Amino acid sequence: MRFDIMTLFPEFVDGILNESIIGRARKSGAIDVRCHNIRDYSEDKHRRVDDTPYGGGRGMLMAAPPIYNCYRAVIDSQESSGAFSRRVIYMSPAGTLFNQKKAEELAGYDNLIILCGHYEGVDQRIIDEIVDEEISIGDFVLTGGEIPACIVTDSVARLLDGVLSDSECYTEESISSGLLEYPQYTRPFEFHGVSVPDVLISGNHANIDRWRREQALIKTERRRPDLLEQFQKEQ
Questions:
Q1: The architecture CATH gives domain 172-234
Q2: Per-residue pLDDT for 169 more than 90?
Q3: Which of 92, 105, 115, 224 makes a 20 to 30 Å CA pair with 2?
Q4: How does pLDDT run across 28-81, given as a tens digit for each residue?
């Protein structure tokens, strides 16, 4: 899968997505992540990408031409890739709330193009012309769309073949299963007077699975009753 991230801060995005599991997946070729500097596509001699909004107001707005030029360059670079499915996303607090189901949906595309806004956002005309979907990572405001873009890329990429070592890494964990994940423990057996539950060292895998299921239900009921309600509806 190919991710194209259009941003004013490509080094920032690359710095995050070059690390850990996602970084290794990029190096192995399991995923293809490309960051594109919108400023490189400005037609202004000073490489400006923003201007004051019509009608007044505080702050600056990202102009449509540099974004569109960047988008066209991304599309042109894919022409030799053959026919594949594509989704253009704008990271925006006005978008639909991102969740695991949306990550699973997006993982079905061959290419995601993610636009990162900045300042007061972007000219509405660019949203209307090139964007398929606006996505938000929560009801709060950030200085730009770079961190949300990294979150979406990470969440989607880890669902793809070759990124994680085993599909169970994501199918049985929190949220993916529909419940919060059960408590987990590792060595030492005793820490500050608290021991690992006996069932986990019993060797009885049926009992372990049953305990984990019960603990996941208890934890979800206490912390995210909304998730438990949705889970029960889908059973």
A1: Orthogonal Bundle (1.10)
A2: no
A3: 92
A4: 999 999 999 999 999 988 999 999 999 998 899 999 999 999 999 999 998 765
Shared fold status for 2-157 and 172-234:
no
Give residue 11's Cα distance to chain centre. 18
* Strands annotated E in 8-162: 32-37, 50-51, 61-62, 86-97, 111-116, 133-136
At residue 162, what is the residue type? G
Mean pLDDT of the 125-140 span? 97
Q: What is the arithmetic mean of pLDDT over 120-141?
A: 96
- CATH class of the domain whose range is 2-157: alpha beta
- The percentage of the chain sitting over the pLDDT mark of 70, rounded to a whole number, equals 95
Structure tokens at 43: 């037609």
Task: Please check whether residue 129 is in contact with residue 136, taking contact to mean a CB–CB distance below 8 angstroms.
Answer: no
Looking at this protein, which amino acid is placed at residue 143? T
Rounded Cα gap, residues 206 and 211, in angstroms: 9
Q: How many CB atoms lie within 10 A of CB 167?
A: 10
In what side-by-side order are the strands of the sheet with 86-97? 32-37, 2-7, 111-116, 86-97, 133-136
Residue boundaries of the structural domains of the chain: 2-157, 172-234
